[in-house]
Write a structure and sequence with these properties.
Layout lengths: L4 E10 L3 E10 L6 E3 L3 E4 L2 H23 L9 H15 L4 H18 L9 H15 L3 H20 L28 H13 L4 H12 L3 H5 L6 E2 L4 E4 L2 E2 L5 E2 L8 E4 L2 H20 L21 H14 L5 E7 L9 E6 L8
Antiparallel strand pairs: 1-2, 2-3, 2-4, 5-6, 6-9, 7-8, 10-11
Helix pairs in contact: 2-3, 3-5, 7-9
Length: 357
């Protein structure tokens, strides 16, 4: 704690024109010696120098007070904090375009309802009432309200960590919005799985079928199948290494976790199939003027380009329908009044042969 002793010292530099001033600011708790403030040069006469000494004392006191009790950051509006959060998240994290698009969409919703409120002025009651009114006015889905609530909770959790609001000021603890019911997922029976294997083995050899064959044999995810290159397939050693995946944004990236990087054994039947497919693909590519190399994708188009993961999923749904492994139902997945271009009703399979495909 700063302790100014005495009235200070004035040292003459140029008589009647320039002086240096400083104060005794107490003892050093470690050494016991008296400490001095830095010299401050003032341009004035000697009488005015005594006045400057008093001002300098006040400056030192105010600086110490600011150090001990730093001013709190003004509480931002939800819009200001949300934009700052998204900017930091975009700059410091390796996020996919799809993730950022959904973050942007969720923040737009939050700001449209609560953006002008200071973060310490919003209450749980206000959140619940505004969300209910928004849904009644726009027929927004429960999924939209859940995403709004989830983003609000993320923002307020971040604000508590940064000391902008206190725990008791967080209104999100009182949000009363149900989580949407998860979609039903159905697995194939053993008999159905055997029938799927038979259908795949009897089907004409092509890239789509090869992808399903890999999924059945290894359990690889769709992105991992579509991102697999021949250099990661050891046909002699009966092993496949997973080191990358093709994302929905059609960008090659590492698996989501360390455990995703793995090497797996491949059975004899699949190895023989891949050998025949590799030769078939080599000829197919050659007909299109493309040379097959170790960097060629195992599952690719006839001219070597990668598949759009969404189009591949659409093909697989049709494949399941064609062979009686599922049926379509019209299910409204998402309704967004703020971003109408995101509204969609898609045909869904009641169950799919391989859920990851």
């Amino acid at each position: 704690m700063l302790e100014i002793i005495g009235s200070g010292t004035v040292s003459e530099v140029t008589p009647g024109k320039v002086y240096r001033i400083r104060h005794n600011i107490g003892r050093d708790p470690q050494t016991g010696r008296y400490l001095k403030s830095p010299w401050k040069t003032v341009h004035c006469n000697k009488r005015q120098a005594r006045d400057e000494l008093a001002r300098y004392k006040q400056e030192l006191i105010e600086a110490e007070e600011a150090r001990l009790h730093p001013a709190k950051r003004p509480v931002p509006t939800i819009r200001e904090f949300a934009e700052e959060y998204l900017m930091v998240r975009t700059s410091t994290k390796n996020l996919s375009e799809n993730t950022l698009k959904h973050n942007r969409c969720d923040i737009d919703h939050v700001c449209s309802l609560f953006g002008d409120y200071a973060m310490d002025n919003l209450t749980a009651s206000m959140i619940n009432k505004k969300c209910a009114a928004y849904r009644a006015a726009t027929d927004a889905s429960l999924n939209v309200l859940h995403r709004i609530a989830k983003m609000l909770k993320t923002l307020y959790r971040r604000a508590m960590i940064e000391g902008i609001i206190e725990y008791r000021q967080n209104p999100c603890f009182g949000i009363d919005i149900d989580r949407p019911a998860p979609a039903d997922r159905h697995s194939l029976t053993i008999e159905e799985f055997k029938r799927l294997e038979a259908v795949v083995n009897d089907a004409p050899m092509d890239a789509h079928i090869t992808g399903v064959k890999l999924g059945i044999a290894t359990g690889m995810r769709k992105g991992e199948v579509l991102g697999l290159q021949w250099k990661y397939v050891d046909l002699e050693g009966h092993r496949i290494s997973v080191v990358q995946q093709l994302s929905q944004a059609m960008v090659f990236k590492p698996p989501k976790s360390r455990a995703g990087n793995r090497s797996m054994h491949v059975d004899d039947d699949t190895v023989e199939y891949l050998k025949r497919w590799k030769e078939f693909q080599r000829q197919q590519l050659a007909e299109n003027g493309v040379e097959q190399t170790e960097n060629t994708l195992v599952v690719c188009r006839e001219a070597g380009q990668f598949f759009d993961p969404r189009l591949y999923s659409r093909w697989f749904r049709d494949f399941c329908l064609q062979h009686d492994f599922g049926k379509y139902t019209n299910t409204e997945e998402y309704f967004d009044n703020l971003n109408p271009h995101l509204n969609h009703t898609v045909p869904s399979l009641v169950y799919a042969a391989i859920s990851t495909i």
